[in-house]
Amino acid sequence: MQSLEEYMLPCLNKELFGIDCMGCGMQRSVALVAQGHFTDAFYMYPAVYTLILLFGIIAINTFKKFKYANKIILILAIVNAIIIVANFILKTFYQ
Q1: What is the three-class DSSP state of 37?
Q2: Predicted confidence (pLDDT) per residue in 18-75, tens digit
Q3: Nearest to 84, CA basis, from 25, 19, 11
Q4: What pTM value is reported for the model?
Q5: For residue 68, what are the CA distances in angstroms to 51, 65, 72, 85?
């Protein structure tokens, strides 16, 4: 049986320069969520749950418009950006 990791895209930044990018860990984290390893997914990529929520709201808003959707999407996008940048800084300088 083949592992899900065999189908994941490699990080070109890590392959070429040897350092993580801001998205490193996202694919594995989503795979961990799909397998039910919720804590491991968070430790792999802390923004995974807010990203899932953001994309879920965008998908729902695409088919069924609702009040305050734009504000919710904007706030979630800002929160995601903060989490992703903070995680990148912590991984880069405190590893």
Answers
A1: coil
A2: 778 888 888 889 888 988 999 999 998 999 999 999 999 999 999 998 889 999 999 9
A3: 25
A4: 0.81
A5: 18, 9, 6, 26
